[in-house]
Amino acid sequence: MKQNILTGVLLAVIALLVALPWFAPYFYIFVFTEILILGLFAVSFNLIFGFTGMLSFGHAAYFGMGAYTTAMLLLHLDWPLLYTLVAAMALSGLLALVIGFFCVRLSEVYFAMLTLAFGMMVFTIAHSWRDVTNGSDGIAGFRISEFGLGLDLVMGNPAVYYHVTLAIVVIAALVLYVISRSSFGLILKAIRQNPERVAFCGLNVRSYRLASFVIAGIFAGLAGALMAPFLRVASPELMHWSLSAEPVLMSILGGTGYFMGPFVGAALFVLLETWITSYTGAWMLFLGIVLALMVMFFRKGVLGTFLDWWMNKND
Amino acid sequence: MTDPILKISNLTKRFGGNTAVSAINLEVMPRETIAIIGPNGAGKTTFYNMVSGRMTPSNGSVELEGKDITGLPPHKISRMGVSRSFQLNNIFPEMTVQENVEVALTALHGHSRRLFNFASRNRAVQEEARQLLDKLHILDLASRRAEVISYGDKRLLEIAVVLATRPHLVLLDEPTAGMTPDETRRTTALIRQLAETGDYTFLITEHDMDVVFGLADRILVMHRGENLFFGTPEEVKNHPEVRRAYLGEDEEEEASA
Amino acid sequence: MSGLGPALLNSLEMGLLLFVIAVGLNIVFGVLNIINFAHGALYMLGAYFGYTLISILGLPFWIALLTAPLGVAIIAVLIDRLMLRFIYDRDIADSLLLTFAIMLIISESVRSIYGSNIQAVYPPAILDGTVSLLGSPYPIYSLFVIAMGLIILAGLWYLFNRTRVGKIMRAAALDRDMAEALCINTRMVVTGVFAFGAWLAGVGGVIAAPMRTIDPGMGEKIIIESFIIVVIGGLGSFPGALIGALILGAIYGFGGRYFPEFNLLLPFLGMALVLLFKPTGIMGKGANA
């Protein structure tokens, strides 16, 4: 019963999002495009944090990899957008495979340090390999001529790109949701709660950790690939550790225990950012304070706290 | 004469200068129940850790059904038919009781590589999990979260998870520790029933001598990492050195243990 | 090979500075089982406190060297008492998250107070200038850094091997259960060790101020370097921190000379190599998941 109510709420939210350009002010089309992209980024992060139990501080590396892939393919080869997205997912997944190989071998503490260190390595490369990445200016000046599959894409109207983003994010989120509820997803949850018992059930915990890390990388890459045309630039900031902090905060803000938590967190995050930055430039400082308070006193997040209360009510 | 299911030769574990397990030799026949007794610190858990792959031996070898498994990682040893429980409960606390067993079954049937199904609709696994819970008399707890059930029921749940991997060799580390006398009686009966009706070989460490003598076909007495004595329960009861070292006839040993 | 001497001295200078910082991270991890992501931010705080005292208030360098690290240690006591105490008995992920948040708070506070520009601190007159060493001119300040590094190294060695407090800390790092059995994980020890780690970071910050640039990004740079050091040397190991720091110093000193185009990448490659062949670090014990 309650499950049906939740599904209904979710469908209503998606319907509202589809209709958004017809009733919301122009400005909010940009805000919600960003929420959708960062929401996907955060959900991909939470697959490894909330489900497999690995805290990554370098998730922006795959996000940035996706952004650079799309930007460069659009700039140099003029590919249709859809093809660049697929290529971005493939390359981000590959990067996650290489880095993940080193990171999943050791304990949680090592994992956190290594993901941050390798993330900054990727940032350093993007920042200093000027011939390819154009240094701190990043890749800009690309244009999108078509979506692929014979569909045109008019970038002049932000509502069009918003709808493209919405469609892709909904599909990607569905895929991630199914994975999280699959037999594989059950094993990931088991690994977070007790990796030793999973090993004594006959599974190689390391390969399941790596598999989830790569899947998370692939979808972070997709989010990044959607971000580059939205920002019209792929720059090293998209790989910086402060961007890796964003999905961490979004997941904590919304709640790591529920699949939709990071999406709720992303919405709160972007709306807060929009609001706060109109008053002060110290947004990142605010971000740090909120993260600290959430971790200390409100660990289940907004959605998590609400759903835990609501699901247990009158049961 | 059948071949032993488990053949342990000269098994040794050293930590720095300390020898926790020293040159243990042991042959276990299929469907036997072996109890391992000895004071705390005798090296029983370290012995288990080496057999189950949690620790690499410093010396010696472990053979399972004629195959050398010395130093293999736990997941490989598990797949070859060895499963174990731990002294402290080792379950998935945030899952339901039934899901705990489903994890092991998902691994067993190779479903763990399925990314695009719904685990909650895996009827075959669910049915099998419920049968197993029924066998351990905890089916009525199936939908409870594992962390909220009683201590004794958690111990039973862990045995259910252990059995779900369909092991030939089962290592139980103090299965009745912390249980009420009633729970201990029920668990002992349950293990005896499993040993008599199923295709299991049990290794059981235990402090409760009623449980030990009620279950064991043979008993290994360990003392300071060494094999003090290995024989039938009758022999153990009558062995003077064992009585002195472990069965409560040496005040000094008890105090230092 | 006339460049060999200066490269060696540069390596030693960088290595010893990095040691002072990384060993603080390692001590805190050893005793508290926390990887302090804000450790680099505390080092930066030391540098900015030094900058404030020396370049803005015009106080002598030596006063700053004595007081700025104490200021950092006081901040650390506040962090410990007001924030970390809530999560000591929680899952390790929470301590990672919280110190990460503290890193954000400190670095962004510094950015909004001092701005993003690069600041400079000049060494005191007595340490200014160069001397001829091994046939090349060499800054006196660099020799001072090497000397300070060696003094701190000797001091830490004395602390861990010859004093009761140090032996307790070492015991706690080796075996936390035993430490708890000896009742040494009391509130005072936890706070004290955390503050001591921060003090070391602060000392590193003041020493680094005249030789490295001061900007709000310096904390993140050093925390990455510290992570590389503990991964190379072995997490929680005191000699490991020294070996790791000297290796990283050598990578900078020699790599910068012979492979300047890969200079930024070499530390990461070194770390990856160690991870491939000795995942727990050169001096590390078992840390497998």
From TrEMBL, chain A:
CDD domains: TM_PBP1_LivM_like. The chain crosses the membrane at residues 5-23, 29-49, 56-75, 81-102, 109-129, 160-179, 210-228, 248-272, 279-298. Signal peptide: none annotated. It is found in: Cell inner membrane. It is a multi-pass membrane protein. Keywords: Cell membrane, Membrane, Transmembrane, Transmembrane helix. InterPro entries: ABC_transp_permease (IPR001851), LivM-like (IPR043428). Its main location: membrane. This is Branched-chain amino acid ABC transporter permease.
TrEMBL record, chain B:
It comes from the Bacteria. Residues 6-249 form the ABC transporter domain. It holds the Pfam family BCA_ABC_TP_C. Gene3D superfamilies: P-loop containing nucleotide triphosphate hydrolases. This is ABC transporter ATP-binding protein. It comes from Marinobacter zhanjiangensis. GO terms for molecular function: ATP binding. Keywords: ATP-binding, Nucleotide-binding, Transport. InterPro entries: AAA+_ATPase, ABC_AA/LPS_Transport, ABC_transporter-like_ATP-bd, ABC_transporter-like_CS, BCA_ABC_TP_C, P-loop_NTPase. PANTHER family: CONSERVED COMPONENT OF ABC TRANSPORTER FOR NATURAL AMINO ACIDS, CONSERVED COMPONENT OF ABC TRANSPORTER FOR NATURAL AMINO ACIDS-RELATED. The keyword Transport applies. The keyword Transport applies.
UniProtKB/TrEMBL annotation, chain C:
InterPro entries: ABC_transp_permease, BCAA_transport_permease. It is a multi-pass membrane protein. This is Amino acid/amide ABC transporter membrane protein 1, HAAT family. It comes from the Bacteria. It is found in: Cell inner membrane. Keywords: Amino-acid transport, Cell membrane, Membrane, Transmembrane, Transmembrane helix, Transport. Its main location: membrane. The keyword Ion transport does not apply. Signal peptide: none annotated. Belongs to the binding-protein-dependent transport system permease family. LivHM subfamily. The chain crosses the membrane at residues 14-35, 140-160, 188-207, 227-252, 264-284. It holds the Pfam family BPD_transp_2.
